[in-house]
Amino acid sequence: NKADGTSEKVISPGCVIISGGAEVTDVPFFLSENISVHTDSDGIDYKSHLYVADETGTAKIKLNGWEQKVIAEEEKRPDFRTWYRNPSKGTGALTLVHNYKGLNKPFYPDFLIIRKLDGAYVIDILEPHDSTRDDNVSKAKALAQYASLHTIIGRAQLIRLMPSSLVGEELKRLDFAAHSELRDKVQHITTNEELDNLFSQYGE
Q1: DSSP labels for 67-131?
Q2: What is the pTM of this model?
């Protein structure tokens, strides 16, 4: 449901978005039509979230500073329609799998962005991620692999907040859906330094 009272079905069980089960088994991913609005008492009221409360027309969601910046940038896009805060568990969570230190682990990208292009809905996967964490490489590879297998995805981005001489800090994005060469290169790296180089070469 949208804040203006109208509704549009943007994701259905027939989509080729896949979620991983507990045993890393692919199952269809879809958002329930029985809307449950998560509320963070210390969150921000968002009218643009996919699910909003009837009483307020908003979803109260807690995001850190640069996650807020990501959503603010997305909301300014002319093709933007709505967004979904991906939970870290449950049937309504999009689950990818990353190989972390030799073990397959669940990976829940932060945001799904829904855009409308030429009359059709496009779904993006966005993952703002702290560059100091030691799972950057494995999650970048997971996004690249997912984008390679599921070409219906609009964007599949790993996002960092990086220093900028012009504005202090700016978001930099690696879009694995847009660059086949990048998808290939990221599968051959093993260190954060090599991932840093990819951000320098392909970051948008």
Answers
A1: HHHHHHHHHTSTTEEEEEE--SSSTTS--EEEEETTEEEEE--SEEEEEEETTEEEEEEEEE--T
A2: 0.84
